[in-house]
Amino acid sequence: MSWLKECTLNWFQSLALRIIKTGEVPKHVAFIMDGNRRYANKQNLQKGEGHSKGFDKMTEMLNWCMDLGVVEVTVYAFSIENFKRSKEEVDGLMDLARQKFKRLLEEKEKLMDVGVCIRVIGNLSLIPEDLCKLVAEAMTITRENNKAFLNLAFAYTSRDEITHAIKDIIQGVKDADILPEDINEDLITDCLYTYKSPNPDLLIRTSGETRLSDFLMWQISNTCIYFTEVLWPEFNIWNFLSAIFYYQKCYPNLQKNRNNLKPIMHNSRVSMYLDKLHNKRDMAIETIYLSAVQS
Ligand code: FPP
Ligand code: MG
């Protein structure tokens, strides 16, 4: 299954989408794509097939987002907690990711034409080396694209993300790049895996679970959260448009809170430290990519 498909909406669905588009459209939408195994169970499929259907749904959803004008999407593809599942299921999910990243790299021309930037956010040291190389290649070649952004949270939890940010900040203080009094919420925000992205405007969780499962906990304090009973592989355009409509109803209140937010301004010492940290992270990804190309 391709990552970028032609639009499959019928005229009535397209019309509904165009009507919703006349209202406020979220720029950044995050998804907790839950319910793949329950779907598999319901359809007498193997768990792996449920995840595979989940991936297909994700590509469909990316098309709806692009049609609607959502610029950035962040999906919870694999949590660090998911490593506790059976070896068979974890291996199956890693294989699915391998297969899909290979496919993504095969269709890179299409990705470059559309201008999609792929970012994998998470603790890459936890994923198999060969998969990490594919991820690094996808991130490096699409780095400059800026028409649409897809952030795949893989081997991710917020607690791990915040722990890493704190470790980087401590190292910055030890190296005398920053001072203890430079530590504030803005600095932490810019040390997270998500430092390149604005906070999500809307978070959608499927499958009837009303938990956040350690996803983007720092980033969603002023995000509209939409829970739906639908299992992820069954999520359809009407469910998506209902979520957007819910966002449009919440928008005036969200806006009131946002008006109090000032843009982040760092002092020059902190700005230099952040440039160094972000360059170091980009270089680490590029080094993995170059080692893969050379081998
Ligand atoms: C949650 O359903 C879903 C996951 C743990 C995996 C989601 C992954 C994808 C949809 C595709 C990932 C994309 C790539 C690039 C590999 P669940 O397993 O918790 O199902 P349940 O809630 O019914 O038990
Ligand atoms: Mg689940």
TrEMBL record:
Localization annotation: Endoplasmic reticulum membrane
One of the protein's GO biological processes: polyprenol biosynthetic process
CDD domains: Cis_IPPS
Keyword match Isomerase: no
Pfam family, one: Prenyltransf
GO molecular function: ditrans,polycis-polyprenyl diphosphate synthase [(2E,6E)-farnesyl diphosphate specific] activity
GO terms for cellular component: dehydrodolichyl diphosphate synthase complex; endoplasmic reticulum membrane
Transferase keyword on record: yes
Key words of the record: Endoplasmic reticulum, Magnesium, Membrane, Transferase
Pathway membership: Protein modification; protein glycosylation
Signal peptide: none
Bilayer topology annotation: Peripheral membrane protein
Catalysis performed (reactions): n isopentenyl diphosphate + (2E,6E)-farnesyl diphosphate = a di-trans,poly-cis-polyprenyl diphosphate + n diphosphate
InterPro entries per record: UPP_synth-like, UPP_synth-like_CS, UPP_synth-like_sf
Top class in the EC scheme: transferase
Oligomer status and interactors: Forms an active dehydrodolichyl diphosphate synthase complex with NUS1.
Function recorded in the entry: With NUS1, forms the dehydrodolichyl diphosphate synthase (DDS) complex, an essential component of the dolichol monophosphate (Dol-P) biosynthetic machinery. Adds multiple copies of isopentenyl pyrophosphate (IPP) to farnesyl pyrophosphate (FPP) to produce dehydrodolichyl diphosphate (Dedol-PP), a precursor of dolichol which is utilized as a sugar carrier in protein glycosylation in the endoplasmic reticulum (ER).
Family matches, as PANTHER family: DEHYDRODOLICHYL DIPHOSPHATE SYNTHASE COMPLEX SUBUNIT DHDDS, DEHYDRODOLICHYL DIPHOSPHATE SYNTHASE FAMILY MEMBER
Family: Belongs to the UPP synthase family.
Record's protein name: Alkyl transferase
Gene label: 105619665
